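note to self: the first set is below, dont mix up w the second
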Amino acid sequence: MKRLITLLSLALPVLLSGCSDEKDILPEQRQKIVSYLEKTHAPALIPEASVGEDGQLPFYTTAGSTVYRYIVNYYRPDRESDPEVTADSKVTITFRAYVFSYSNITDSTFPFYSNDPLLLKAYEDLGLTPGAWSFEPLTLDMRGDILKGLRHALLGCRAKDEVEAYMTYNEAFGDKYFTTIPRESPVAWYFRVESVE
């Protein structure tokens, strides 16, 4: 019995530290995304609550618990007259999806999935079989089965919006491996809202 108690006393800190690490992932990812948006992103962004009434500063919003959205062309004229995405909408988007590493995504950063026709040649050069993926705009029914974080990012957008959405793993693909995406990976979706019905 004494030996069992000794083994448990040695194993317990290891077991508890493993649980603690998992609980630390989500707050750490939140902190890293916010730090990236406010310090590294070009342009640097501020939280929506910090935007003054007459200011036109670039800002991010938070949707769900951990989806951070930046509408690149938010201040375009007549944006308010474009149709808005609601929970009952059908939305057509052109997108690029990335595993997010808390650094700037550039033209040389390759997405894990996209329907952007500008990338078709690059995918073919990598050996993608033509026809394996569609490079047509994707239509999503907001009432259907959509990635939770993408749903949060789309709600409130308007037709013609160009959007960057950064999400923690729980809003993306979760704690399991998903094709080429490592478990517990934050992701970024860059998309243009082509139309809203």
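second set (the one i keep forgetting abt)
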Amino acid sequence: MLNQLIVALLSSGELAGLIFLLRRVTKVQVWDERWHAYFVTANQGWFWRGVAWVTQPKLMVGWCFLLAVVQWSTRGWLGALGVLAGLGGANVIGIIIKHTLKRPRPVQHLAHDDGYSFPSGHVLGTTVMTVMLWQLYGPAWWLAGSLLLWWGLVAYSRLTLRAHYPSDVVGAVLLALSWLSWLKWLIQLLGWF
């Protein structure tokens, strides 16, 4: 339980530090734009758009409900509630941060990628689902490799499609790890599992 608290505190502090740097240090924005230009490619074809479509936040909610049904049938209502709280809480916090920071998207982003940039909703949802699937069904090497590959494809798609800066991806990962660590710590504290 102490490990969860340490991870929660560290990832929350790193996320707060990143947000502070993005709001207060202009050199960080310049660095972010340079790295973003490095990842952007001319290839914005069907594959990368498909990866982005499958992991869009609205569809990720559907994947989460499917996983919750599986958890309900195997672990009961607490397992289902844990899955729903994992993605639901992360999304609520992500939306609050997006509308508080109001960071614009990179130049030349696709028209359907509207709204604010930080944190990436696609990467946030994918990171939450990846961590939950690993915690529920790991530690098989093939599962770890598959989840890591899928996460990498989603993260790269958000960069190459010009939807996000690298710090948006990093911020989404930090938010997901922070929220899931706090949630797991709370669940352990309450003795639900």
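remember for set 2: The chain has eight helices and no strands.
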